[in-house]
Amino acid sequence: MIWSTYILVIILGLIIGSFLNVLILRYHTGRSLGGRSGCLTCGQALCWFELIPVLSFICLKGHCRTCRTKISWQYPLVELLTAGLFVFSAQHFFPSWSTVVFSWLIISLLIVITVYDLRHKVIPDSLVYSFNSLALIWAIFLGDSLFVALLAGLIFFSAFWALWYFSHGTWMGFGDTKLVLGFGFLLGLSAGFSALLWAFVLGAIVGLLLLASSKLKKLPKNWPRFNLKTEVPFAPFLVIGLLLVWLANLNLLNVFLF
């Protein structure tokens, strides 16, 4: 791709990321996705220059212009993450722009699932079913083998269902169980297993770091304390694992086998 295309993809990604923030914050709140955005603290409607992705956050120094309440870092991070992943997917699937655009739909949905799970520790069924539907469409039209994709989805779902059922939901959430069904559809058996392996490895590393941080005497103000019973959302690790395999071709099985 030429440099001007990269710029356009980045701008589009920032704009879509801004919309995803609205979706994440308003989902299941009864508020429509239409209408002007406003400060969540004082309710003041935002002007156009307060809605420029990333740039507005920097210019306002992370505070509401009216009440000076701190603005969540979620806003610029989601915008930058969306733009970055849009660029990666465009590079990966170029020159098939139809595939690129379809991958952007999946990526956007995965970002919403990730951030929503981090905020609420739950994955709404409508988001999971939407992802699984898009992953199945991918398997039908872009996958190598529909049979393998369906088999992989069934195997992953069954394995996670067993973890959820026999642990009574303490080892694995049912939302995660439904989510991995789409992993099989999208990645197939080998790549899908590698994505799950990445998720467990990264989850274990982060879990150990969080436990270790709780042992420190000096911690930042309001830093939460973690123990073995602390609930940590697993969907973000699943999504990271999927993206590492899907967009970066980092298949752990190749490392172990070769």
From TrEMBL:
Top-rank lineage group of the source organism: Bacteria
What Pfam family is a match, any one?
Answer: Peptidase_A24
Alphabetical UniProt keywords:
Cell membrane, Membrane, Transmembrane, Transmembrane helix
UniProt KW Cytoplasm keyword: no
- Please list the residue ranges annotated as the Prepilin peptidase A24 N-terminal domain: 11-93
- Tell me a GO cellular component: plasma membrane
Residue ranges of domain Prepilin type IV endopeptidase peptidase in the record: 104-208
* GO BP, sorted A to Z: signal peptide processing
Give the membrane topology.
Answer: Multi-pass membrane protein
Q: Where in the cell is it found?
A: Cell membrane
Gene Ontology molecular-function annotations: aspartic-type endopeptidase activity
| Chain segments annotated as transmembrane | 6-27, 75-94, 100-118, 130-163, 183-211, 232-257
Please give the PANTHER family that the UniProt record associates with this protein.
PREPILIN LEADER PEPTIDASE_N-METHYLTRANSFERASE-RELATED, TYPE 4 PREPILIN-LIKE PROTEINS LEADER PEPTIDE-PROCESSING ENZYME
Q: Which protein family is named in the record? A: Belongs to the peptidase A24 family.
Q: What is this protein called?
A: Prepilin peptidase
Q: Which organism is it from?
A: Candidatus Vogelbacteria bacterium CG22_combo_CG10-13_8_21_14_all_37_9
